[in-house]
Amino acid sequence: MDTYQYDINIIAPTETEADSKMQAIVTIVSCLTVQELNRLAFIVEHDPVKTALAKRYLGV
After folding, report:
1. How far apart are CA 30 and CA 41, in angstroms?
2. CA 9, CA 55: separation in Å to the nearest integer?
3. Contacts with 32 (C-beta within 8 Å, 6 or more apart), sequence order
């Protein structure tokens, strides 16, 4: 599989938190398929009830 490099901006109060967010994003992207990522993004953007349920289930 090919590797592609992107420049992104992460909004965070500190560089440490931005690094932590980036590590989490890399983990999620590497573990999910394109279809799963698209579905997750759609739910987070358009379905606040499911997003709230997922956060509660995850304990956050």
Report:
1. 15
2. 24
3. 40
Report pTM: 0.80
| Mean pLDDT value across the chain | 96
Give residue 2's Cα distance to chain centre: 21
Report whether 10 contacts 21 (CB < 8 A): yes
Rounded to whole angstroms, the Cα distance separating 19 from 25 reads: 10
Q: Is 47 left (phi over 0), alpha (psi -120 to 50) or beta?
A: beta
Place of tokens 């358009």: 46
